[in-house]
Design a protein that fits this description.
The complex is a heterotrimer of chains A (555), B (135) and C (102). In chain A, a hairpin with a 5-residue loop joins strand 14 and strand 15. In chain A, helix 10 packs across helix 11. In chain A, 39% of the residues lie in helices and 17% in strands. By secondary structure, chain A is an alpha+beta fold. Chain A has 4 domains: 104 residues, Sulfite Reductase Hemoprotein, domain 2 (Alpha-Beta Complex), CATH 3.90.480.20; 151 residues, Sulfite Reductase Hemoprotein, domain 1; 93 residues, Sulfite Reductase Hemoprotein, domain 2; 144 residues, Sulfite Reductase Hemoprotein, domain 1 (2-Layer Sandwich), CATH 3.30.413.10. The radius of gyration of chain A is 23 Å and the shape is globular. Chain B has one domain: Rossmann fold (3-Layer(aba) Sandwich), CATH 3.40.50. Chain B contains 6 helices and 6 strands, in the order E-E-E-H-E-H-E-H-E-H-H-H. In chain B, helix 1 packs parallel to helix 2. Classes of the chains: A alpha+beta (555), B alpha/beta (135), C alpha+beta (102).
């Protein structure tokens, strides 16, 4: 794992001192609220519905036990004893006071963490595959690249007041677990025919009001060209991206309006100017960073304890079958800890739970934790013989839910319960859906089905790419929920199709039940997933199930 | 009257030739830097780039493009630039910042001098082996 | 014809606490919507809003929110304002917590 050097630490201390002064200058009138707002946003501080909200970056989703313990401390000391893990590998604290935030940032700096560029019209916190360094299907660990991008983008003087935000994600596996195609820019580690490692670059993905799937701008970028190329892309967009309408400001619209050929020509020309300013220092830095991400010294031991527990304990077996992923070492596993207990707020972990997970990482997990964009926590490296003990501990603290990838593993944004931009609630819909399908005891029979819920058109809850997407809107002063079907958040990314008219708050749970029951009737075999069935039969049969009244009228 | 901000604090405007002649350009923030560079007259010694709002960061890209293209004359940021942006302006290739007296009163000299250390704590400079981003 | 003016309250967030607050008839800020001044005259509403917005050292983002007169004072007409005066629905935090401590 990356460790801050003297430069990083000194930078952060200076930055935090600047923010402390900015808070004081806001209070004494040197800064107007209009001026202060983008400054607090670029330091992760929002003003939400009921309070300020501090969004702390967990760059590329990686943290150690000391960092997780510090997040628990922040939750208890300055918040209400919990934190909320988000779809962009951040954690949000919902109740800080403005005057406490500089102290919170200093506390984060003690463990090499910050809230820089988790908001604002800046290059945002860089995200990555949450199984990086552990997955069996990986070409190369994407995190050294992500860390290089973090350093390059942090406080970049040209890109602090852009037309809109700019999100970057990095992946290095055959499978895409980072929703690469929904980002302004995605870096995918690839290998060419000569066996060289390079990067495929996609631009113009994004959800929100106009969802778009990212497109390839460069198929194979040599390693040393990465930063000048990224700088060229962002610089071109910062210049020509629209500033007259915030809904048309993202690079997806710039790309749509100018076309890929035009954008590529501009980027290539700017790249030619920028490239000579990089003379290899970045590559030396990259090598240093890479060394920090060397794989741990994986221990070897018998897995007999695991095999016995798997045979004899059905609860353990169910959890293993659902929450584990294949590790690059045969005798190890990747453990996803569900932060989606049935009926609880998706992504919320108490300070106690954070400490339990930190302890497990320190004791069994080579001191590593990950946060996924699906709002769960991951122990990326666990020897299989330790799984029974880990599971027992998780169960004691409400963390043993066996539902990863299932219908109750729901992504939900904070919605109207917290967010100033929201048009409807998301959290109670997620809570009720999870509770309902738990009651029905159908979850494991239904299999892989992702529900994603956003409380407004900005789509923080990724509803467009949910197998079942739910979008909460305000229709004439009443909450109304639109359903989309067939979205896909992986390398075969697709934007879901709108099923039809929306549903009232008290109609949305039965509506989803009708979709699921239609799926169970239609699927060709119990192994055919919801998405496979949807792709085979299309929207029509689901629409018929959703709107039985309309069917009657037609008949 | 306006105030010129440099690394040593507030001072008067020493550019007396105005912006009407061949030696100076006064540019809006939506200037296309590529066309600007192509048409740039060798006599130009001063380019002033407007910031209609501090939230409009296009000026940073324009200054940067001018430097990358080899322009070595003076570049000045003019308008609604706040003290918190001074380091960004300098790192992007601006030589100084021109602000109104009202803004100078609200954000006094000490607040600008606090960012005169713009050459320190600079990730961009590290990426490029110590040379400033605009070099 | 212009739409008839509907009654309003002035609401904002507190600069330091971030909490939802309402302007009262006596020019103080209250955390309780029931104590807010219910404004029924449009010209008066605009003046009061200017007053509120000039208090940048205390409040952030003052605006006019629709309200109606209820038994105990002004009440919200839109669910967003209902959430703002109550707090989130997943935990009894914010104003609900304050009430529980009374």
């Amino acid at each position: 794992m990356y460790k801050y050097n003297e430069f990083d630490a000194a930078f952060l201390a200076e930055r935090n001192a600047q923010f402390r002064a900015q808070v004081e200058r806001r209070i004494d009138g040197s800064l107007t609220e209009d001026e202060f707002k983008p400054l607090r946003l670029m330091n992760g501080l929002y003003l939400q519905l009921h309070a300020y909200m501090l969004r702390v970056a967990i760059p590329y989703g990686t943290l150690n036990s000391a960092q997780m313990n510090q997040l628990a401390l922040l939750a208890e000391k300055w918040d209400k004893g919990y934190g909320h893990f988000t779809t962009r590998q951040n954690i949000q604290f919902n109740w800080p006071k403005l005057s406490d935030v500089p102290d919170m940032l200093d506390a984060l700096a003690e463990v090499g963490m910050h809230a820089i560029q988790t908001s604002g019209n800046t290059i945002r916190n860089v995200t990555a595959d949450h199984f990086a360094g552990a997955a069996a299907d990986e070409i190369e660990d994407p995190r050294p690249v992500a860390e290089l991008i973090r350093q390059w983008s942090t406080d970049h003087p040209e890109f602090q007041f852009m037309g809109r935000k700019f999100k970057i994600a990095v992946g290095g596996g055959a499978k895409d677990r980072a929703v690469l195609k929904a980002h302004d820019l995605a870096v995918r580690v690839v290998q060419n025919d000569a066996g060289e490692i390079g990067y495929q670059i996609l631009i113009g993905g994004g959800l929100g009001r106009t969802p778009m799937i990212g497109k390839v701008i460069n198929d194979f970028l040599p390693r040393a060209d990465l930063l000048p190329y990224l700088e060229a892309v962002v610089s071109v967009w910062n210049q020509i991206g629209r500033r007259d309408n915030k809904y048309k400001a993202r690079i997806k619209i710039t790309l749509h309006e100018h076309g890929m050929d035009d954008i590529r020509a501009r980027v290539d020309a700017r790249f030619a100017l920028i490239k000579p300013t990089f003379q290899g220092a970045d590559q030396e830095l990259f090598s240093e960073i890479e060394a920090y991400f060397a794989a741990p010294d994986f221990r070897t031991d018998s897995t007999a304890v695991f095999s016995t527990a798997y045979k004899t304990d059905p609860v353990f077996r169910s959890w293993v079958d659902t929450n584990l992923a294949e590790h690059r070492q045969d005798d190890h596993a990747i453990v996803t800890i569900s932060i989606k207990k049935h009926g609880a707020t998706p992504g919320d972990a108490s300070a106690e739970q954070m400490r339990v997970m930190a302890d497990l990482a320190a004791k069994y997990g080579y001191d590593e934790l990950r946060i996924s964009h699906e709002q769960n926590v991951i122990l990326p490296h666990v020897h299989k013989s330790d799984l029974p003990a880990i599971h027992a501990k998780l169960k004691q603290h409400g963390l043993g839910t066996a539902n990863i990838g299932l219908i109750s593993d729901i992504i939900a944004c904070p919605g109207m319960d917290y967010c100033a931009l929201a048009t409807a609630r998301s959290i109670p819909v997620a809570e009720q859906l999870a509770t309902r399908f738990d009651e029905l005891k159908l979850e494991h029979d239904i299999g892989h089905l992702q529900i994603k819920i956003s409380g407004c058109i900005n789509a923080c809850g990724h509803h467009h790419v949910g197998h079942i997407g739910i979008l909460g809107l305000d229709r004439a002063g009443v909450e109304n929920y639109q359903i989309t079907l067939g979205g896909d958040a992986t390398w075969s990314a697709a934007v879901g199709e709108r099923a039809g008219p929306g549903f009232a708050y008290d109609e949305i749970i039965p509506a989803v039940e009708r979709i699921v029951s239609a799926y169970l009737d239609i699927r060709s075999t119990p192994d055919e997933t919801f998405l496979e069935t949807y792709r085979r039969v299309g929207l029509a049969p689901f629409k018929a199930a959703l709107y039985p009244e309309a069917q009657k009228k037609v008949a | 009257m306006t105030v010129i901000v440099t690394d040593t604090g507030f001072g008067p405007d020493t550019w007396t030739a105005g912006y009407e002649g061949n030696t100076a350009l006064d540019l809006p923030s939506d200037t296309n830097p590529v066309e600007l560079v192509e048409q740039l007259d060798a006599d130009v010694q001063m380019i002033r780039i407007n910031f209609p709002s501090f939230a409009d960061g296009r000026g940073f890209t324009i200054a940067r493009q001018l430097r990358l293209s080899g322009y070595t004359g003076h570049i000045r940021a003019y308008g609604h630039v706040i003290a918190d942006q001074y380091a960004m302006a300098r790192r992007s290739g601006f030589d100084d910042v021109e602000i109104s007296e009202d803004l100078a009163a609200r954000q006094p000299e000490t607040q600008w001098l606090a960012r005169a250390n713009w050459q320190q704590h600079n990730y961009q400079s590290r990426m490029r082996g110590g040379s400033p981003a605009a070099a | 014809m212009a739409r008839a003016f509907t009654p309003k309250v002035i609401t904002a967030n507190h600069l330091i606490e971030g909490d939802v607050i309402y302007l009262t008839a006596t020019d103080t800020w209250s955390r309780d919507l029931a104590e807010a001044e219910l404004i029924t005259d449009e010209a008066h509403a605009q003046l009061r809003l200017l007053d509120a917005q000039s208090q940048a050292a205390t409040v952030v983002g003052a605006y006019l929110a629709d309200a109606v007169s209820g038994d105990a004072g002004p009440e919200p007409t839109h669910f967003r304002e209902e959430f703002r005066r109550t707090g989130p629905s997943n935990y009894a935090h914010g104003k609900q917590e304050a009430l529980a401590h009374v």
